[in-house]
Design goal:
286 residues; six-stranded antiparallel sheet; 30% helix; 27% strand; globular; binds pyridoxal-5'-phosphate
Amino acid sequence: MSRVAYVNGLYVPHADAGVHVEDRGYQFGDGVYEVCEVRGGRMVDERRHMERLVRSLGELRIRLPMPLHALGVVLRETVRRNRVRDGFVYLQVTRGVARRDHYFPVPEVPPAIVVTARRVDPAKNEALAAEGVSVITVPENRWDRVDIKTVGLLPNVLAKQAARAAGAREAWFVDADGHVTEGGSTNAWIVTKDGVLRTRPAEHGILRGITRTVMFEVAEQLQLRIEERAFTVAEALAAREAFLSSATTIAMPVVRIDGQPIGEGKPGPVVARLRALFHSVAEIAR
Ligand code: PLP
């Protein structure tokens, strides 16, 4: 089955899907994106992802390329055409195509949009969750506006590549005060010795993950206490459990940090319960 991408108004074969050389996303990283999980052919938490997209675009003063309901149609159609039952849909919007010049184009150009969808084998993720993953720590070196989901991800790329080179799955950024901010593509959590879920506040220094937001509701249903307070690497190592969260991983146990085990170096019960309950709390449209 051949894959299909949506590019600026057209559904095209994935192999031929390209953007203009002067797309500002390509030249400046001047664009934003969203990744939404697809489960049983349906998008998970579409409403929240669209809300965050609108916020990211607003922060960068990029126009929404089409009304949200039309965007929803394109996302669903891309999922359908790629026959994705389980996987994710990727949406990218850039400031558009214009002669290369740092200033915003004058006159304004239409934003450029790309949508792709990809299958993921759910069994692989489950197998990973059963084993748990390793993370390494790296110094925080990103800009101050990581709350915006921009396609400018070079520090994240380098951090995750360093993780892979070290045999780990994710890299946790650690700020100048020694606190973990978040992962290269995930939010970071611990379960303290007292059984409290702890994650950094999302006001500054991290992306407000949609999975993170939903996890608060999941925790409430499980009657778990959550504390929005940054933690150090030492606190994570002393924790009962640790995990990471994102639309593509949901709650994924972290069993080692920089080669040192957390607890017994095995996935714990709290993350398993959060993971098991997640999709009955998330919004999945019919
Ligand atoms: N933090 C970063 C840097 C990310 O790139 C992502 C997802 O891509 C997340 C956190 C998790 O966000 P979400 O739960 O919305 O997928």
